[in-house]
Structure formats: C-alpha cells, structure tokens
Amino acid sequence: MANQKGMHAEQLGGRTQQRFFSAEESDNFVYPDSFEVDFGKSAEIDAGPLDARAINLRIRELMSQGYGTIVMKNPGAKHGIGVGILNRLRLDIEGSLGYFGVGLIDGPNIRIRGRVGWSCAENMMAGTVVVEKNAGSTFGAALRGGDLVCIGDVGARTGIDMKGGTIIVGGRAGAFCGFMMQRGRMVILGDAGMNLGDSMYDGTIYVGGKIAGLGVDAVPAQMTALDVAWLKRKLKLYGLSAPRGVEKMTRIVAGKQLWNYDNLEPAEKKIVL
Amino acid sequence: MCGIAGLIHRGKGGEIGRELTAMLQSLKHRGPDSTGFALYGKPQGEALVMRFKVAEQAEMDHGFDIHEKVSARRRQVDGRLAELGAQLLEQDAVTEYAFRYRFSYDGDRRKLADYIEDIDGAEILSIGHSLELVKDLGDAARVAGQYQLGTFDGSHALGHTRMATESDVDIRSAHPYWAYPFADVAVVHNGQLTNYWGGRRALERRGHRFVSNCDSELIAVYLADRIQGGETLESAMKTSIEELDGVFTYVVATADSLGMAKDVMAAKPMVLYESEDFIALASEEVAIRSIFPHEIETFDPYEGDVRVWHC
To answer: Which of A12, B60, B96, B255 is an S-S bond match for B184, by CB 3.0 to 4.6 Å?
Structure first.
C-alpha cells in the first residue's frame, strides 16, 4: 500500500544514528517507545477533531498494535504532529502541518501532501520525510540523519545547525540556509537566499540556481565526479532533477578559516597569540 | 512572541468580524494578554468614526471615584467635540470606559485629536471613515464578545494577539496602532525594531505624537507620513524595508488596501493564502485554517517581500 502511494523503500542503513562503544550494546539497543510494525497492516486517522496530543497518542497506539502504514486525514496545519516516532513506519499525511511537525523521529518514512510550518523534522535522526508543497523557516534544523525533502520552496535558515543527513529542496531557499552547518549535505535546486552557509563548520551545499550571497567562511568548491554521481542517485530517488543538470550545480563548502577551526588547543593558542 | 493576522475581501465585503475573531482566537497561544482588531466597514459619507477610551480596563477595578471620573471625562470629550464644531451623529457606550462616536467634522483632525487626548485618561484608538479599532485585555473571543464584533461586516481587517514582553499588560500597549492623526491607517507587527528611537525622534520633529513606547506604532506613523508626502502604500512599504532596522513582519491597512512586509532576515513568520476574491495572512497557517476547514494552498513570503492588495 505504501509503495502504491509513491513511497520509496531506500535502505537507510540503520534504525538510529546513535553510536555505541560496544557492538553488543549497539545490537541490543531498543528505544523504550519503539514498536515492531507490519507495513502491510494499515489504518487511518481523522485528525480533524483531535488536538496534537491526541493525534500523537493515536499514532503510538496504532504502532503498538503493529500497524506499519498509517494514513492521516485533515491534519489542519496543527503544530507538533507526528513527533517522536522511533521505529519504522509509513506515515502518509494528507494535508498540511503547522510548527515542529514530525520532529525527533528515528526511522519512519513520512510523506506530507501539503505544506509544513517552521521547524519541520527538527532533530530528525533517520528515515525519510517528503513534503509535496512548501516549507517554512528552519526546515530540518539540527538534522542528524535521514533524507528530508521539500518539493517546493523552503524558508530562511533551512538546515541551521545540521549535523548529518540530507536536505533536498526542489524550489528556492530563503536567507541563512546552512547556518552553522556541521555535517551532512543540502541540495537546493532553485535559487538560494543571502548568507548561504554562514559560519558553516563542515558539510556540503549544492545549489542549482543563483546564490544571493555567501555567508562568512562559505566558499565555492570544485564539483567532482563523486558529487555528480551522488546527486544523480539521490535526486532520482525523489523524482527530482537539476534544471541545468547536476554538473552545473555550484558546490559550497566551509573555508575553514574561522578562528576556532584550527588544531590548536586553548593553551597552545595562548602561546601563539 | 505575538500573533498577527489580516484578511481582505476583493470586490465585495464579508463577515470580517467573525472571520478575524476565529483567526485571532487560533493564535491565542502566541499571546494571550490582549487582542486587537482593526476593522474596515463601509464608509458612510464624509462622517468620521472615532473609537476612544477614557480609562484602562484595570483602572475600573480599583479607586474610590473611578466611575465618576470616567463619566466626567466622557462629558469633557462631548464638550470639546461640540466646542470644535463636530456634529455628533451616533454615540455608543461599548463598555463603561470605551466608546464609539460617529460625527461630521471638517476641521483640522490633528487639532481635534490633540484636544481630546488632552483630557486626563482619554486616548483615541482610531479615527477614520471606515476604520474602527478595538483592543482590550483578554483573548479574541472575549474581546469580540465584549465589543460585539461578531456581526461586523466590511471589506478588510487586521488583528493582533499580544504577549507582553517589554511593556505593561494594558490597552495602551495593545496592538493594532492607529497612525495618528491620519484617517484609516492601522498596523500590526511581530518583531523588534532596533532603530526605534532614531525613527521616532525624526517623526516627532515633524509634529507626530506617540501614545506608547511600542515600535509597532512607529511603523504606522512612518507609513502614514510617507503616504501623506505623496508616496503610494507599496512604495512607502518598500522604503520601510530599507530604513527600518531589525527583525519584523508587519501588516498594514488603509481605507482600501491591505499590505504585508517582511524584513530582509525573514526572522518572523507569515503564511499567505490568496485566491481571486479573498486573501488571508497570519503568523501561522492554523489561523487561516480556522476559516477554511478544507485543504487550501498556502505559502510563505520571502525575505524583503512586500505585497499589497486592494479591495
């Protein structure tokens, strides 16, 4: 059922981004609120008459009963819907979400047929989220893993403080995207706003359109064959393409000239200064 | 945090009181301290509508002689209007301390406003041919009920739910702000202006008065001043993006237009719904959903965006 709804089945290599000191601990790790679910078992939620807490409790209740595919109708742009899902799940939301939608998730595949408000998928750890329309600001803030896709435009500060994973934007992006980015990749197929990648520590931003301006320490870099291959593979997964071809996209990385981006310990710094 | 909202019916009017109440009530979580409405009804000839108060709501709960004072202040307003030659057509005592007067007056509007506000405790909330500005403590449902706004029909409106952060919880600090002394201009704003005092002093040197220390009032007076100088609303708003410093999103209305502007950092939210005959905008989509239960197309304006719609 989920595949019929256009949800792909990319393997994301692990349920969680957490790292453990021993293999045994890693193998045996289970979230206290995660559930074994069957994708073939599906259910529907009418979110219209429910508040956010009741909606999230209903999702948890269905997952605890083994439902692996959930279709949510009438979300009504309510805030904080679909948060804290810590297991695999196919969640199809037929409408728009408000602020902080599907945040703190680790593993589900979510498709949102409408628009999302600020801070969608904040702190997402694994899984996929596809937004079919536009997204507000701070889309994918502090993203740690997984794929976060917006087919339309995104607001300012998308990917602020992102620490991993991939953000793909089909349209244009607002100002200060990738601010203090630390790891991961951001792909903007349209134009990017001013101060792109400001104070980024690491990670890579690809832009298909015009860039209004680069932020402090963000610099253009050479596109490599590996970049091109990765972009083609990733965009294909979501049925997207770069308007002028991925080869002509601009690659932005950290210049690594920030004062604290050297190898000196504080004591050594004192000697140098 | 604060929440702002606006709507405009193009071509024909609608139930703007009911619609804006629903939108603002759904933004209550952004600011429960006070709620304000700027509603644009059908102009009735050259007559002016004045909304004013002669005391704060909180004052009515204490003081030995506040009720006598309020009556005396109202009598003073009546006397000064007559003295200036204003012909009173209607008067409603909406609450014990807030009033709606409709009168004809072709004199100097600034002089009239100054003379009324010279009365202790008196503050004009708005003067206009179609604008009626109502604000009070509490959420949208409470204020709309208190002032019977649910049946207000008109062409466009804007409103505000306030979370008091840097000034008192009182009507004087509540939004929207009327652009004294210009008829029919009102503003709501979410954000902070960092060059407020410089801008205010410049406008005060040009003879404008401010009733509050709120930066939102500066936007209202700034825009009205530029419009009076010959600029269009859109042009004045575009200049404001360059001259006002800080993070802000504001909504402004004149007698026949509604506009929104967002600063170049785009740090404050705004969601828009636009169709052939109706536009709604708010800090959060959930406010627009309160009047559209079915799925609709919405979008976020970008940094530095200025948009204006006409009735």
So the answer is: B255
Residue B241, chain A, CB below 8 Å: the answer is no
B271 touching chain A per CB within 8 A = yes
The Cα A25–Cα A18 span in angstroms is 11
Instruction: Look up the domain containing B50 and give its range.
Output: 44-128
Residue B299 with chain A: CB contacts under 8 Å: 115, 133-134, 152-153
Pick the last residue of a domain from B128, B147, B174: B128
Nearest to B286 among A98, A155, A193 (CB): A98
Binary contact (B286, A174; C-beta < 8 A): no
Structure ipTM: 0.82
Q: Please tell me whether residue B66 adopts helix, strand or coil conformation.
A: helix
Assess if residue B145 is contained within a domain: no
- B191 to chain A, closest Cα gap in Å: 15
**CA distance to partner chain B, nearest, from residue A51 (Å):** 12
Does the CB of B243 have a partner CB in chain A at under 8 Å?
A: no
A134 in contact with B, Cβ within 8 Å:
yes
In this structure, the answer to whether residues B169 and B34 fall within a common structural domain is yes
Average pLDDT over residues B240-261: 95
Quick one: what percent of chain B has pLDDT higher than 70? Answer: 100
Q: Which CATH number does the domain housing residue B66 bear?
A: 3.30.70.60
Q: Is residue B140 part of a domain?
A: no
Query: Taking a C-beta distance cutoff of 8 angstroms, is the pair B248, B189 a contact?
Result: yes
Residue B20 belongs to some domain of the structure: yes
Instruction: Give the whole-angstrom CA distance, residue B218 versus residue A188.
Output: 38
State pTM to two decimals: 0.87
In a domain? residue B144: no
| Cβ(B38)–Cβ(B253) below 8 Å | yes
Minimum Cα–Cα distance from B299: chain A residue = A134
Q: Using CB atoms, which residue from A78, A114, A175 is nearest to B265?
A: A175
Q: What is the pLDDT of residues A230-272, one digit of tens each?
A: 999 999 999 999 999 999 999 999 987 765 555 566 566 555 5
- B242 and B280, same domain (yes or no): yes
A25-79 pLDDT per residue, tens:
777 777 777 898 999 999 999 999 999 999 999 999 999 999 999 999 999 999 9
Helix/strand number for chain A, H first, E second: 4, 11
Cross-strand bridge partners of residue A129:
A110, A148
Positions of B annotated as catalytic residues are: 2
B260 in the same domain as B185: yes
User: Per-residue pLDDT tens for A129-171?
Assistant: 999 999 999 999 999 999 999 999 999 999 999 999 999 999 9
Burial (CB < 10 A; 0-12, 13-18, 19+), residue A42, is middle
Element (H, E) at B81: helix B66-83
Residues on chain B touching A193 (C-beta within 8 angstroms): 266, 302-303
Examine the domain organization and report whether B164 and B182 are in the same domain: yes
Distance from CA of A72 to the nearest CA of B (A): 13
